[in-house]
Amino acid sequence: MSLQYVIDAYNLTNHPAFKPVSKRVLNIQHALADFIRFNRLTGSKNNSLVLVFDGYPPAVEDIPSEHGLLCIFSCAQEADRLIEKIIQNSVSPKNIVVVSDDKQVQLSSRFLHAQICNVEEFICGKNNKMAKSAKLLADDVKLSYGKMEKINAELRKKWL
Fold first, then answer.
1. What are phi and psi of 155, to 5 degrees?
2. pTM (two decimals)
3. Alpha carbons 68 and 43: distance in angstroms, whole number
4. 3-class DSSP state for residue 30?
């Protein structure tokens, strides 16, 4: 079973961990495709990759085209809507992995039975120590209402 990765390209190119493989970048489409392939972010070579860009394709730049790679431009619509259409038109949406940090894209993808992955997880992997510690820290911050009230009472005693 091969997977199809549908990537919200704007999210990935603006992530701090995105560093083009080559110093001489022809265009962002090539840089992103090379980065993903070089780092083997889609796993097996049998998995396909769809890069969804906002806006219109560049007039003079050539768009990367190779087996298993497709660059799509949203033109007049939002890239988010185009990602939804890709999932809706799929015969097997369960084999689609949508990579985006956009909460609305994640919700609609999950609703349409596609898998979702945030950009950090896609680039760094699920076993990344930094990603795990950030998640643990976020989990620790969740407090019940009772605990918050207790902390507030202690702070009031100390400071007021």
1. -65, -40
2. 0.72
3. 12
4. helix
For residue 153, what is the DSSP state? H
Res. 141: pLDDT tops 80: no
| Residue 8 backbone dihedrals phi, psi, to 5 degrees | -75, 95
Average pLDDT over residues 67-91: 91
All structural domains of the chain, each given as residue ranges with its CATH number in brackets, are 4-126 (3.40.50), 127-160 (no CATH)
**SS3 labels along 66-124:** ECCEEEEECCCCCHHHHHHHHHHCCCCHHHEEEECCCHHHHHHHHHCCCEEECHHHHHH
Q: How many CA atoms lie within 13 A of 66 on its CB side?
A: 11
C-beta of residue 97 within 8 angstroms of C-beta of residue 116: yes
How many whole angstroms separate alpha carbon 31 and alpha carbon 157? 56
